[in-house]
Amino acid sequence: MRGSFITFEGGEGSGKSTQVALLADRLRLRGIEVVTTREPGGSPGAEAMRLLLLNGVIKPLGPTAETMIFAAARDDHVQTTIAPALARGAWVICDRFLDSTRIYQGVLGNVDRRIIRALERATVGDAMPGLTFVLDVPVEVGFARVSDRGQIKDRFESEEIEFHIQLREAFLDLARDEPKRCVVIDASQSPEAVATRIWLAVVERLLKPRTTKTAPRAAS
Ligand code: T5A
């Protein structure tokens, strides 16, 4: 038995955490066991690494070292939280996953793609998401939402506006490259409207009974 693995990706303030919670509620109403989690973090070891990654302590070591710490956190998260949940048939919904490394460290940080892919193979294994939502909002909308929270900015939120414009483009490129796995959602609408579009995609791609077409037998 294997559960479904769904990830949410996108820029800062695109509404990922909000939509993870709304989708989990809807699935639980159907009697499905759902584990919600996040990256960096999602297990005690990875949460400890999250603090170092987001408070900027690791930044001076450079993007390659930073990528390796993200990978170490992911390894613990997959082994401790994600793989056991999927193995018992639960659905896992994760707020950011490997695509964030591909984009933040790979595209924006210029870390060699071969390093990123090698670390993916070592840490993710067959715990690949079957469905990834890329929540797309104009940068200024995401920023306004995050600044409304009034928290101190983390290491990535403090980057220049140009960084976030490139980030948005890179996520859209990624979704274009992997259309079977990735669904782009216009996340500038109300949380409820966004949740409805996500739900329709989940029904279509994961919940609809699969009708397997079998080729007609040749008459003998
Ligand atoms: N990172 C992560 C890497 O560099 N490499 C990696 O491999 C990984 C895994 C994580 C940072 O780490 C980086 C990327 C990130 O910079 P984080 O603190 O987890 O940092 O932050 P984010 O993932 O960016 O999430 P945010 O909390 O900033 O935003 P969300 O989760 O997208 O948005 P959410 O749901 O918290 O909503 C933000 C605010 O907007 C409101 C909410 O109520 C909330 O106040 N909101 C809406 N308002 C209007 N309309 C809507 N549709 C709304 N949806 C939410």
What would your notes on this structure say?
There is one protein chain. The protein has helices at about 15-30, 45-55, 65-85, 100-110, 115-125, 140-150, 160-175, 190-205; strands at about 5-10, 35-40, 90-95, 130-135, 180-185. The protein is of the alpha/beta class and about 220 residues long. The protein has a 5-stranded parallel β-sheet with strand order 2-3-1-4-5, with helices on both faces.
Q: What would the keywords be for this entry?
A:
about 10% strand; 5-stranded parallel beta sheet; 5 strands; binds P1-(5'-adenosyl)P5-(5'-thymidyl)pentaphosphate; alpha/beta; about 220 residues; globular
Strand count, sense and barrel status of the largest sheet are: 5 strands, parallel
Shape: globular
Low-pLDDT regions: none
- What series of H and E elements makes up the topology? EHEHHEHHEHHEH
- Number of DSSP E strands: 5
Order of strands, widest sheet: 2-3-1-4-5
Distance between the termini: 38 Å
Average pLDDT metric: 93
Helix content: 40-55%
Distinct ligand kinds: P1-(5'-adenosyl)P5-(5'-thymidyl)pentaphosphate
In short:
With 220 residues, this protein is α/β, with parallel strands linked by helices. It has helices at residues 16-29, 44-54, 63-87, 98-108, 113-123, 139-148, 161-177, 191-207, and strands spanning 5-10, 34-38, 91-95, 131-136, 182-186.
Helix/strand layout:
Elements: E1 5-10, H1 16-29, E2 34-38, H2 44-54, H3 63-87, E3 91-95, H4 98-108, H5 113-123, E4 131-136, H6 139-148, H7 161-177, E5 182-186, H8 191-207
Bound molecules: P1-(5'-adenosyl)P5-(5'-thymidyl)pentaphosphate.
P1-(5'-adenosyl)P5-(5'-thymidyl)pentaphosphate binds at residues 12-18, 39-40, 54, 70, 96, 100-101, 104-105, 145-146, 148-149, 154, 156, 187, 190-191, 194.
